[in-house]
From TrEMBL:
Organism: Talaromyces stipitatus (strain ATCC 10500 / CBS 375.48 / QM 6759 / NRRL 1006)
Signal peptide range: 1-17
Pfam entry (one): Spherulin4
Lineage, highest ranks first: Eukaryota, Fungi, Dikarya, Ascomycota, Pezizomycotina
Keyword Membrane assigned: no
Protein name: Cell surface spherulin 4-like protein, putative
Length: 255
């Protein structure tokens, strides 16, 4: 039981433990999301923040298609899964009206009555990380717009080190590094994130080789107080390697 609940913040705070942050950009045909369901079920103490992304955004319809609806409903049936909708901001150059209409379509999924396809928040991809007020205002307005529609878990993905306080005030979680596994090192990634921001920081590694030592990697990330982590063998989140997701989840559960 949490004793404090910050207003307008994620009900399950990202800072409570190191979570999984999983960009689930695979179309849910023929068992494509099974690895995620299985991990959520096998590792109940791990929170899986799962980003759904029908079409680089919510897609053209009011609701997702008839293949995606039952798949999101199933994700939402796990108490340790929080689903988030993908919106891209093109480094604060996307028109505000497009960003807001993307967000409002996701918010509208909560009113679909036949199944539970509600998302808990928004993952703003291609977020800026500079401290120019045009960029920080753009992102804080986007976050406020989403919170105003009840989407309280807000993630920014600049994919690179962010130090401007305004972004941490606006978002619950910031992806401070999205990088190939071979380019990752603790000293250039974890250690450069200011300590007060680590409990709002996520790290995502792509192109992870199959022999990677996930358990020691996860242990340094958890030890540094990083709020969320993910690694994929793929370049681009278009496939899930069951054994890798299992290693990440079991390392987090046992951390
Ligand atoms: C969502 O944003 C994209 C640009 O990222 C735009 O092409 C699309 O039309 C928007 N969708 C809605 C429903 O506004
Ligand atoms: C994150 O850690 C800082 C101390 O470094 C603390 O002041 C802050 O409340 C923590 N934030 C969250 C969301 O837990």
């Amino acid at each position: 039981m949490k004793t404090t609940i910050l207003s307008a913040a994620c009900l399950v705070p990202f800072s409570a433990a190191t979570d999984v942050l999983l960009p689930l950009y695979v179309y849910p045909l023929s068992g494509a999301w099974d690895a995620v369901y299985n991990a959520a079920s096998a590792y109940p103490d791990v929170t899986f923040n799962v980003i759904v992304n029908p079409d680089s955004g919510p897609g053209a319809g009011q609701y997702p298609d008839s293949t995606t609806i039952p798949a999101i409903n199933k994700l939402n049936s796990y108490p340790n899964v929080q689903t988030l909708g993908y919106v891209h901001t093109s480094y604060a150059s996307q028109s505000v009206s497009k960003v807001e209409s993307n967000v409002s379509v996701y918010a509208g999924w909560a009113s679909y009555s036949e199944s539970n396809i509600a998302v808990k928040g928004i993952f703003f991809d291609e977020a800026p990380n500079n401290d120019d007020p045009t960029s920080t205002d753009y992102m804080s307005n986007a976050a406020s717009y989403a919170r105003g529609l009840g989407l309280d878990c807000i993630i920014f993905n600049p994919g690179a080190l962010t130090t401007a306080t305004a972004y941490y005030d606006a978002a619950d979680l910031i992806v401070n590094e999205e990088i190939a596994y071979s380019s990752y090192s603790k000293s250039s990634t974890v250690d450069v994130i200011p300590s007060q921001y680590r409990n709002q920081s996520a790290i995502i590694l792509h192109d992870t080789p199959s022999g990677a030592d996930i358990s020691s990697l996860v242990s340094t990330i958890v030890g540094a107080g990083i709020a969320a982590f993910y690694a994929t063998e793929d370049c681009c989140y278009n496939s899930i390697t069951t054994s890798l997701l299992d290693s990440i989840s079991s390392s987090l559960e046992n951390a």
